[in-house]
Write a structure and sequence with these properties.
Helices cover about 35% and strands about 20% of the residues. With about 260 residues, the chain is of the alpha/beta class. It is globular. The structure holds manganese (II) ion.
């Protein structure tokens, strides 16, 4: 059984190059290839009518929240500070609803960069709007080096899901200027940079709900441990899908006898 992995997309606000199309849907090719290379079937989820979200989540076995713009501070009840970057209100609203439905349906989630920040907010957490607002932060979290190169280390919490996949340390790339501040309910910080910046969060217990601040999809070709992260996520999505198949007869019977 091949797991269907929904990948949330950005909505472009500029005209799509070489076309007359407006408001195009965009997902980086690395998200698509890493899912396909990890045994899953990538399915791009556009920013669209939120009433379709339950249908999308019914069809998918796991969700990747992709990176992108800053998350609006309005989502966690505060106002923009000077260093806040570009935000996209329709994407914020759509992805937040998509994330909440996926959590409700207990399907695996791998939230990347902006996605990890959104996961934290969905569970009641807050963000630092820029790493310059974090007193201890002294590393470059918006690297100038090419995206496929790891530029800073992280320390991973023993006993975490992430540690079982990556071990107790890893080298990661870094393309973020926001970071987790207050951690959301039921989430745990499971990786930090040497300067104290939060690099990963996880929801405790099953299913697989992991948020990473770096971009593993860009380094998975050269770093086997990052490829394992996607394989493990897809494997969890597959297991969930198989469970649903086995539980289907009982569920159908319940529906049939309740009418
Ligand atoms: Mn970083």
């Amino acid at each position: 059984m091949t797991a269907i992995i929904g990948i949330s997309a950005a909505q472009l606000t500029v005209q799509v190059p070489n076309t007359i199309s407006r408001n195009g849907t965009y997902v980086g090719g690395d998200y698509i290839s890493v899912v396909a290379n990890s045994g899953g079937a990538p399915l791009v989820i556009p920013v669209t009518d939120t009433r379709l979200i339950a249908t999308f989540v019914d069809q998918m076995d796991g969700l990747i929240l992709s990176g992108g713009q800053d998350v609006s501070p309005a989502l966690y009840g505060t106002t923009p500070q000077a260093e806040l970057g570009d935000t996209c209100a329709i994407r914020d609203d759509f992805e937040l609803a998509l994330l909440k439905e996926t959590l409700a349906q207990k399907k695996p989630i791998l939230a990347i960069c902006r996605g990890a920040q959104l996961l934290n907010i969905a569970l009641g957490g807050t963000l630092h709007q820029d790493t310059s607002y974090i007193e201890t932060a002294n590393l470059s979290h918006m690297q100038q080096d090419c995206a496929t190169r790891a530029t800073h280390g992280i320390r991973i919490e023993r006993g975490s899901r992430l540690a079982s996949i990556l071990g107790n340390t890893a080298q990661v790339n870094s393309f973020h200027h926001q970071a987790v501040n207050i951690v959301g309910t039921g989430l745990k910080i499971t990786a930090t940079a040497p300067d104290g910046v939060v690099e990963a969060i996880e929801k405790e217990g099953a299913p697989f709900v992991v948020g990473v601040q770096w971009h593993p999809e860009l380094i998975s070709e050269t770093d086997a441990s990052m490829q394992r992260l996607f394989q493990e996520f897809v494997r969890n999505a597959e297991l969930g899908a198989l469970k649903q198949v086995y539980n289907a007869p009982a569920k159908l019977k319940k529906i049939a006898t309740s009418r």
